[in-house]
Amino acid sequence: MVSLKFSIILLSLFSLAIITQAQDLTYLKYKCPKNYAYYMPNSTYEANLNLILSSLSSNATRNNINGFYNVSAGQAPDVVYGMFLCRGDVSNSVCRNCVTFGTKDVLQRCPMVKAAVILYDECELRYSNRNFFSTVDQNFTLFMMQSPNNVTVEPDRFNQLVATTLNNISTRAASAASGAKKFAVQQANYTGDQKLYSLVQCTPDLSTSDCSRCLEGAISKLGDCCNRRQGGRVIFASCNFRYELYEFYNATAEVEAVPAPPPATPSPPPASGSKTSGKGKERTILKTVLGTSIPIVVLVFLTASCIIYFRRIRRKETDEEKNHRSFFQELRKSRGSTLAEGNKAELIDPMLSDSCNAEEFSRYMHIGLLCVQEDASDRPTMSSVVLMLKSHNSFLPQPERPAFVGRFMDNPEATASNFSVNEMTLSDVDPR
């Protein structure tokens, strides 16, 4: 019995450590290409992949890798290519934690898939059976997100300021020495009391021309994602940019170009094939990231409390106020009007309107829609939800279609009968 209790305590502490580490990071998205090749358990490809992930994790602890590392292992058809890129302003410890956690997280999100990429605010991790080193893929947009709020002061001038600033620092980042950190930030004056903060970055294995071309492609997406928005972000496989009206990067991020490291001494090939790597150097920037699992407990408690509260309110509604349509049908019909127009406050229960902050309700509704998106890969993790609830400056991407929404027909005759004879509800079931 004592041994069992001790094991349970150890398991609980281990789970708590994992949750805490995950909360240190801001998860963005992962991609497992659909209809992509899969590998078999205990196969040569799996062995090479494990070797790659282990190498990425171990090299993330080094102080001279410039926040970037790529490595390959094995021989065709079982060769695996892998890399990580940490955001240019994060410290070595944050980079290490992000990569170490990502090597485990990506296998859980993309089991048995030969290619995957996972994005956090702090780092990007990618592997594939195809060589993607030193190449630019402008057709593969990994992530695109914008602020939910528009600028109100001279929006056209703001758009021009964003484009000009991003183009200027793109030139500076691309011109960094070969193998050096291709990263640049800049602040520019927008109004008397507001500044624009911008960041661009390329993987250090790109040439000057390729980095410029990659960032040009990303910046060309400004009109699609970020027109007049207070903040925006586009992430390609080999480069990315972000801008905000608040300082989202480390204030000491503006670093001098460092010389490229000397060529690595070739290492003996492993049993499953050859192994090559590319690396750089990163200056240590002190940054403390505190993780805690308390918000998880609080979130669960608040969720349960809200469910009980709204159930009690439901019981008080009169028969005339009841609506026979399901929540998803109503949500689908209102997407083009109430939600799309930003009038989420109209959805507030009249009994709560006096005590409910419309702006907070709109944000919570937005977060709720993100959590029920049809594609599970688009849904935020628990740590991301906690961050969204805690910070009003965090990004809120545009939610995609919720699961099962849009699969009902707008046929009033099909839903004309509200109740059966004995007042039991009737359901019109459509095949999936």
From TrEMBL:
- Write down the superkingdom of origin: Eukaryota
- Offer one Pfam family short name for this entry: Stress-antifung
The residue range of the signal peptide is 1-22
Task: From the record, give the transmembrane residue ranges.
Answer: 289-310
Give positions of region: Disordered.
258-280
Biased segments, Pro residues type: 259-271
**UniProt cross-references to InterPro entries, sorted A to Z:** GNK2, GNK2_sf
Record key words, sorted: Membrane, Repeat, Signal, Transmembrane, Transmembrane helix
Residues in domain Gnk2-homologous? 27-132, 139-248
UniProt entry tagged with the keyword Ligase: no
Coiled-coil residues: none
Q: What is this protein called?
A: Gnk2-homologous domain-containing protein
Lineage, opening ranks: Eukaryota, Viridiplantae, Streptophyta, Embryophyta, Tracheophyta
